[in-house]
UniProtKB/TrEMBL annotation, chain A:
Recorded GO CC terms: AP-type membrane coat adaptor complex; cytosol; late endosome membrane; lysosomal membrane
Keyword annotations of the record: Cytoplasm, Endosome, Lysosome, Membrane, Protein transport, Transport
GO biological process: endosomal transport; protein transport
Location within or outside the cell: Cytoplasm, Cytosol; Late endosome membrane; Lysosome membrane
Protein name from the UniProt record: AP-5 complex subunit mu-1
Superkingdom of origin: Eukaryota
Record InterPro entries: AP2_Mu_C_sf, AP5M1, MHD
Similarity remark: Belongs to the adaptor complexes medium subunit family.
Subunit annotation: Probably part of the adaptor protein complex 5 (AP-5) a tetramer composed of AP5B1, AP5M1, AP5S1 and AP5Z1.
TrEMBL record, chain B:
Species for this entry: Ursus maritimus
Statement: the UniProt record of this protein carries the keyword Transport: yes
Upper classification of the organism: Eukaryota, Metazoa, Chordata, Craniata, Vertebrata
Protein name per Swiss-Prot or TrEMBL: AP-5 complex subunit beta-1
Gene name linked to the record: LOC121104798
A Pfam entry, by short name: AP5B1_C
Domain of life: Eukaryota
GO annotations of cellular component type: AP-type membrane coat adaptor complex; lysosomal membrane
Database matches in InterPro entries: AP5B1 (IPR038741), AP5B1_barrel (IPR048980), AP5B1_C (IPR048981), AP5B1_middle (IPR048979), AP5B1_N (IPR048978)
Residues annotated as domain AP5B1 middle: 261-626
Residue span, AP-5 complex subunit beta-1 N-terminal domain: 35-104
Length: 490, 877
């Protein structure tokens, strides 16, 4: 269970190599073992240059996908996981765990403690999950709170030292690199016994506990007879516990109002010490009924120093917060659109912001717009072929608003106008973006009085809630739209 | 090289990192390892700069110190540097320990004979156990981090040399119980415990109290290498291969600890598990893999020890923890997971595979885990991806693909959907809900629509074809799926012929279930739209793949129409590729006309040559031979002359290959009849040959050129009548015949072989005279006898006789030529020697050991040959 090497590569389309190795680290003692374990199927770790080239090719990130290349485009070359085989130096380096996020490619090669031919299934390779944790850890370290390139460079420069702490010999000790950074800084503190490895020091100061619940609501609305609309709430509970003592115990209870929607698919942070079986088994896979467990959801845990996600959940609320339809008809160079949105009466009508984005893909630039909105303002981004309907902070009393009119387009030129592989012909969507503070769609809340803290001093407890839209689509009901299997089960 | 500044070092290290091999090959690379070690003690360089030098040595020890001796020396030097550090806090101690460990482990230097190992190991163990090593090892504040580092170093050494710490188990347990840092000690103990168990099991020894012996190896005393030596031959996987594989090989099953040992072992494992919550999640996962591996198959160690951890692990979404849980599941199966537990685990895995809070790579890995789920009672064949039995359609609902998914997610989910469709078919359609198959069809149609987009990136097209391939792969037996797929693909081709390379690739990879109908519809699609358009080259590429003996007239019609538009070299070659395909398929009628027309009409000389070549092949080679000559099909011709490229393909077939002789020839007993001498050749067949042609060449000009012998087929083990080779001597003289064989192999190659030369003896030329008409044989002979002189010559010689006497000699060698016989003492022999010589013998008054022979011939040159022949006869009897 170890890594042979790890790389960070920035993806730079348009440059000759299309990328640069920003960081790499090899583990020679692990490599030594790989040679023994892999036997004749052993392929050594290449130098950075050849690795970069092979990886970008395999990930289709070189700028040359004009021609059909069998080793990449063949129909039998199927990748169903983020694990690749790279052709380097006459052999195939496998398994290479790699993914692209924010223009950065994260890659590493785990040790496989057996022969590679035939390839063992990934599930049998212990190093695979460790590879993912290492890469996720690096990703979190680089991007959490990072604002610009200078900060990114600073963090990249810290990586060699951090990995010397967190992964000195290729075996990952802690995926939380911020911890390793702190442990370098905390080095002079004497550690008492039974200090958890995931908690570098102890907090000194005023005790306080902060809990925030963020719900994201997704929706796919079709306004069609034979296709069901879908929507789902995804919640994340984030905690920051500033408490004295080595192992303070905290229990947080999440509660629902009487008509609240039960929480399902609950995943908890590893610091949670025990879980009620009702929490473990409450799942969106099952048909909902009235007997569903509706809380309170108790989470006893020993908090780490840093802010962490105590749990994630999903929920199926009875109605979407905003229900709407979008009708678009093509008439030669112009399209005729009608949009109607209705806020459900149970939803708090007090937005931080609310807007509807109506993009027009695979068309020319907008040349003319003739639209009427019953409420709010309409902004036109001609070159981007985009309309933004700014609804603002509140829906009107009627809770219902509409937009209708025509949009005319100029000639299509491939370089500038947005391409989309879904929105072909009449297939089109509008996407809602909104945020409501101090509100959750499920009704879920953390009662200050229900928070139990077993530590010295009475902590100050603060709670926050918000609802954010995420992937909230309303599809043109006058044309085919992509559906999920769930939408077909009316 | 003298001392370098910090900047110079940074530059040097940068150059090294860019390409270590290139740097080490340059003159600069020679001293890098040595310079690095000496620079560590330089007072000019900052600590930070030294740390970066050490970091390099952690990554590239093999380049810096390429052999064991150099590694040993480097480790010694690093240890010297370490002890020479002043007692104040230093950032160098930790990397120095890591570097010395790396140098020894990666450089193959670790062992009882290595001085550096003998220094490093006690030092590490001393640090790990928190002993006071004196002021040289830094201030107290550094002890704790150094203790953890020492544990890590020991663990790496134990990984590379299993059994190294077998003697320290008791000590490590003791430390874990006291104030030691929990995580490094736990992981070290778990690894050492697991390795010891494996080695002892292989040696069929028990734990021998290793777990309780708490003694420290005495400082400076000898290290116990016994277990490491035993373990040395078998580097141990830290994680088991999946699932419970190689039970025998790992040998764990044979270890049966005594009750006391079992209790100690249980206590040690429980101790590790109980404090595991203090470990980081990734370390917890390692601990579980190690302990699961250690206890698997160990008698008297029920895995219930793990049970208290399971619920906690099931609740998290942490990838490593869930993965470790699956490892435990695979290792212990029903012993640890009841059917209900299994169902719960599967549900958690299913929801984790689609949970919106988790990133895509995690989803994909969990999907993989679902299709490779270690079931308690698996039904299907092992090693194949399959949906677990408990994962019914209901559980899968959220895991089905949609067009909105990322390509990898789409393919992974599509695989699941295909598995569902396969099951669905077995269960018969229920008719209510949308059936998975209908959904599959819609999805594929959507993918094709996207692939048809003109401006779309190639990845979209690739995805469409990958999905089609996956579906065919899983559902090849379902015509209800394949038929719409076939027609959908045909429509896709109509919409975007530029996808031709993808179609060709797909046809190459799928079986006949889709391949056959797809070929037919694509052929139809192409030939039904003749004429000139920009898609012509794609049409020709497709036709070259799909053209066969079916509806050749339509294909030829298309080609005739297309020929006029094939103005450039590339198009002409594409056109000729189609002709080639037709040629292979055995289409003759009409094709010859087309090829002739092309040979005249094409603008490019290369194209004309090519067409002519094909025409010649078509006109001269029979069907099967043509097929072999043209196959296997070539890739698109290279940019040089396509004739050259073509030649590479079938030159081998059209050219005659030199080969070892497939048959053996020998000259059989002659039958002196007729008007010319005829050799009877016996054939021994070594390999099957077809269309054999034997060619003979006479050395010198003694005989007229010999005709070839043709044999249609020779097979080993099948009797072959003798081959008759008529000779036409110009002079009656013996000679040798050179023999060559030209033949076809069963593979269709034409081969050529030289056979050993065949001797033609003087006697092989003998022919009898036609019998005298009136029976006056004596008179006939005398007439011949007299006619030899005066032109010829007469001679007498003594012919020795063997024990059988004259009668046997005559009957054996001269029987057909005897004119007058008075057995057993007198014979008159007349031999005709073609072309027109004669040899007359009188063998009279034979004695016991020989017979005097009077001999006449009309040809002087025959005399010595006849003499030799007669003298040699007795020996030949």
């Amino acid at each position: 269970m170890a890594q042979r090497a790890v790389w960070l590569i920035s993806h730079e389309p348009g440059t000759p190599l299309c990328g640069t190795v920003r960081f790499s680290r090899r583990y020679p003692t692990v490599e030594k073992r790989a040679k023994v374990f892999n036997g004749t199927s052993y392929v050594p770790i290449p130098e950075d240059g050849p690795f970069l080239k092979a990886l970008l090719f395999e990930l289709r990130l070189l700028d040359d996908d004009k021609d059909f290349v069998a080793s990449r485009d063949s129909c039998s070359h199927i990748n169903k996981t983020s694990v690749y085989g790279l052709l380097v130096g006459g052999g195939e380096l496998w398994p290479v765990v790699a993914f692209l996020k924010n223009n950065m490619i994260y890659a590493c090669v785990p040790l496989v403690e057996q022969t590679l031919s035939p390839r063992p299934p990934l599930i049998s390779i212990s190093g695979i999950s460790q590879s993912f944790e290492l890469l996720f850890g690096i990703q979190d370290f680089l991007y959490l709170g990072q604002k610009n390139d200078t900060e990114l460079n600073t963090k990249l420069n810290q990586l060699p030292d951090l990995l010397l702490q967190a992964c000195p010999f290729g075996t990952l000790l802690d995926a939380n690199l911020q911890n390793s950074l702190d442990s370098i800084n905390f080095a002079s503190v004497t550690h008492p016994q039974k200090q958890p490895a995931w908690k570098v020091g102890t907090y000194k100061g005023k005790p306080q506990v902060s809990i925030s619940i963020t719900e994201k609501v997704k929706s796919m609305q079709y306004d069609k007879q034979d296709i069901a609309d879908t929507w789902q709430v995804v919640g994340a509970v984030t905690c920051k516990c500033d408490l004295e003592g080595i192992m303070p115990n905290v229990t947080i209870s999440l509660s629902l109002p009487t008509n609240g929607s039960p929480l399902q698919d609950i995943l908890v942070h590893p610091c949670v010490t025990s879980l009620d079986s009702a929490i473990l088994t409450s799942s969106s896979i099952d048909a909902m009924d009235d007997s569903a467990f509706s809380g309170p959801y108790k989470f006893p845990f020993t908090p780490p120093l840093e802010s962490f996600n105590l749990c994630y959940y999903t929920s199926q609320v009875p109605v979407p917060p905003i229900l709407g339809f979008y009708q678009m008809k093509e008439e030669e160079i112009q399209v005729k659109i009608t949009v109607n949105l209705k806020l459900h009466e149970s939803v708090k009508n007090n937005f931080e912001f609310c807007e509807a984005r109506i993009p027009f893909y695979n068309r020319g630039p907008i040349t003319h717009v003739e639209c009427k909105v019953s409420f709010g303002q309409l902004e036109v981004f001609r070159e981007k072929s985009l309309l933004i309907w700014i609804i603002g902070q509140k829906f009107p009393k009627s809770m219902e608003i509409s937009l209708s009119g025509t949009v005319t387009f100029g000639a299509k030129s491939h370089e500038k106008q947005p391409f989309d592989e879904i929105c072909i012909g009449g297939t089109a969507y509008l996407k809602l973006h909104f945020r409501i503070l101090d509100y959750t769609l499920t009704g879920c809340y953390a009662d200050q009085h229900s928070v139990q803290v077993f530590a010295s001093g009475k902590p100050k407890i603060s709670t926050h809630r918000k609802l954010i839209s995420s992937d909230y689509y309303i599809w043109n009901s006058k044309a085919p739209a992509p559906v999920t299997y769930g939408s077909l089960l009316l | 090289m003298g001392p370098l500044s910090r900047e110079a070092w940074a530059q040097r290290l940068g150059a090294f990192r860019t390409s270590p091999s290139a740097f080490m090959a340059s003159p600069e690379g020679e001293d890098l390892g040595r310079d690095l070690l000496s620079e560590l003690r330089s007072e000019k360089l900052s600590e930070q700069a030294k740390v970066s030098l050490l970091a390099l040595s952690l990554e590239y020890p093999a380049q810096l110190w390429p052999d064991a001796a150099a590694a040993e020396a480097a480790a010694t030097s690093l240890l010297d540097t370490l002890v020479l550090l002043p007692p104040r806090p230093s950032a160098l101690r930790r990397p120095l320990l890591l570097a010395a460990t790396t140098a020894l482990a990666a450089g193959d230097a670790l062992g009882p004979t290595s001085g550096a190992s003998r220094r490093l190991l006690p030092l590490l163990l001393g640090l790990a156990s928190g002993r006071d090593l004196g002021r040289g090892f830094g201030p107290a504040s550094e002890q704790r981090p150094l203790q953890a580092t020492a544990c890590e170093c020991l663990r790496e050494l134990e990984s590379c040399k299993p059994g190294l710490l077998g003697g320290c188990l008791g000590l490590l347990r003791g430390l874990l119980g006291q104030e030691g840092p929990v995580q490094p000690l736990s992981l070290l103990l778990a690894l050492a415990l697991r390795n010891t168990l494996v080695i002892q099991a292989r040696a069929r020894a028990g734990l021998q109290g290793l777990l309780v012996a708490g003694d420290m190896p005495t400082a400076g005393g000898p290290w116990n290498w016994a277990l490491a030596e035993e373990g040395d031959a078998h580097l141990q996987p830290q994680a088991p291969s999946w699932p419970a594989a190689e039970e025998e090989e790992c040998g764990l099953a044979v270890l049966e600890p005594s009750p006391e040992e079992a209790r100690e072992l249980r206590a040690a494992v429980a101790q590790l598990l109980d404090s595991s919550y203090l470990l980081t999640p990734v370390a917890q996962a390692q601990l579980l893999w190690l302990l699961g591996w250690a206890l698997r198959g160990l008698r008297g160690q029920p895995p219930v020890l793990f049970k208290p951890q399971l619920v906690r692990l099931l609740g998290t979404a942490q990838l490593t923890l869930l993965h470790a849980l699956l490892a435990l599941k695979a290792a212990f199966g029903e012993a640890l997971f009841t059917a209900q537990d299994e169902a719960l685990l599967l549900r958690r895995l299913t929801l984790a595979a689609q949970h919106p809070a988790l990133p895509l790579p995690t989803h994909l890995f969990y999907l993989h885990c679902l299709l490779n789920f270690p079931e308690n009672w698996p039904l299907g064949p092992t090693g194949e991806e399959a949906a677990p039995l408990l994962l019914g359609p209901r559980l899968c609902r959220g895991l089905l693909p949609s067009l909105l998914h990322d390509p990898m997610a789409l393919l992974a989910r599509l695989h699941l959907l295909c598995l569902l469709c396969a099951e669905d078919e077995e269960k018969e359609e229920k008719g209510q809900d949308w059936s998975p198959r209908q959904y599959l069809e819609e999805l594929l149609a959507g993918l094709r629509q996207r692939a048809a987009l003109d401006a779309g990136p190639r990845a979209l097209a690739t995805l469409c074809f990958q999905a089609s391939y996956l579906v065919v792969h899983c559902l090849a037996t379902q015509p209800a799926v394949l038929t719409p797929l076939t027609h959908g693909l045909a429509r896709l081709y109509r919409a975007r012929p530029a996808l031709a390379p993808h179609f060709v690739d797909l046809l190459d990879r799928v079986g006949p279930e889709l391949g056959e109908p797809l070929r037919a519809v694509l052929r139809q699609e192409v030939v039904s739209r003749p004429g000139r358009d920009e898609a012509l080259r794609w049409h020709l590429q497709i036709l070259a793949k799909v053209a066969d003996g079916n509806t050749p007239s339509a294909t030829l019609g298309f080609l005739r129409a297309a020929a006029a538009h094939c103005t450039d070299w590339g198009l002409q070659q594409a056109l000729l590729q189609v002709c080639r395909a037709l040629l292979r398929a055995g289409v003759g009628e009409g094709l010859a006309d087309l090829l002739q027309a092309l040979a005249r009409q094409l603008e490019d000389p290369d194209g004309r040559d090519h067409a002519r070549l094909y025409y010649i092949l078509l006109a001269h080679l029979a069907g099967p031979k043509l097929g072999v000559a043209l196959g296997p099909s070539l890739a698109a011709p290279a940019l040089t002359s396509s004739l050259v490229a073509e030649n590479q393909g079938f030159a081998a077939v059209l050219m005659v290959q030199e080969a070892p002789a497939p048959i053996r020839l020998s000259v059989g007993p002659r039958q002196a009849v007729g008007t010319v001498p005829v050799l009877r050749l016996h054939v021994e067949v070594l390999e099957p040959v077809y269309s054999l042609e034997l060619r003979f060449r006479v050395e010198g000009q003694l005989y007229a050129p010999l005709g070839a012998i043709h044999v249609p087929c020779l097979l080993p083990g099948r009797p072959c009548p003798p081959l008759l080779l008529p000779l036409q001597p110009r002079r009656p003289a013996p000679t040798q015949l050179g023999v060559r064989a030209l033949y076809a192999t069963p593979a269709g190659l034409t081969c050529h072989a030289h056979l050993p030369p065949l001797p033609v003896n003087f006697a092989d030329l003998f022919l009898p005279f036609p019998q005298a008409p009136d029976g006056d044989k004596r008179g006939f002979f005398e007439e011949l006898w007299d006619s030899c002189l005066p032109k010829g010559t007469e001679s007498r010689l003594w012919c020795p006789l063997g024990p059988q006497g004259l009668e046997a000699l005559v009957s054996c060698h001269l029987e057909p030529f005897v004119v007058v016989a008075q057995p057993p003492t007198s014979y008159h022999v007349a031999i005709r020697l073609p072309p027109d010589s004669r040899l007359l013998l009188r063998l009279e008054a034979a004695q016991a050991d020989g017979v005097p022979v009077a001999l006449r011939t009309d040809d002087w040159a025959v005399l010595p040959l006849a003499g030799d022949y007669l003298r040699g006869l007795s020996a030949a009897v």
